[in-house]
Amino acid sequence: MERNLRKERQGIVTSNKMDKTIVVAVKWKEKHPIYGKFVNKTRKFHVHDEKQEAGIGDTVRIMETRPLSKTVRWRLTQIIERAK
């Protein structure tokens, strides 16, 4: 049996104060429909971090998963770059 494709995002960890949960801010640019100017957009995701290895400022890759709690629907798949 084959699983459906899951959404993946890349973002920066903004908080790791919760137990096994981090907050990841994902940024992207979107063109304004009328004025044509590119606008920066940000969305925060609560992400399950089982081993509690991500720190604030780390760049991470996250993947959509089944609901793990009221707010957590994503899980950490990879730490791309550690904060300096």
| Mean pLDDT rating | 96
Unreliable stretches covering 5 or more consecutive residues? none
Strand content: over 45%
- Distance, first to last CA: 42 Å
> Measured on Cα atoms, how large is the radius of gyration?
14 Å
Helix content: under 10%
Total helical segments: 0
SS-based structural class? Answer: mainly beta
Query: What best-fitting shape do the alpha-carbon axes yield?
Result: globular
Number of strands: 5
For the largest beta-sheet, the strand count, sense and barrel status come to:
5 strands, mixed, barrel
Q: Please list the strands of the largest sheet in the order they lie side by side.
A: 1-2-3-5-4
The sequence of SSEs as H and E is EEEEE
Gist of the model:
The protein has no helices and 5 strands.
List the topology elements.
Layout: E1 8-18, E2 21-31, E3 38-48, E4 59-64, E5 74-81
Parallel strand pairs: 3-5
Antiparallel strand pairs: 1-2, 1-4, 2-3, 4-5
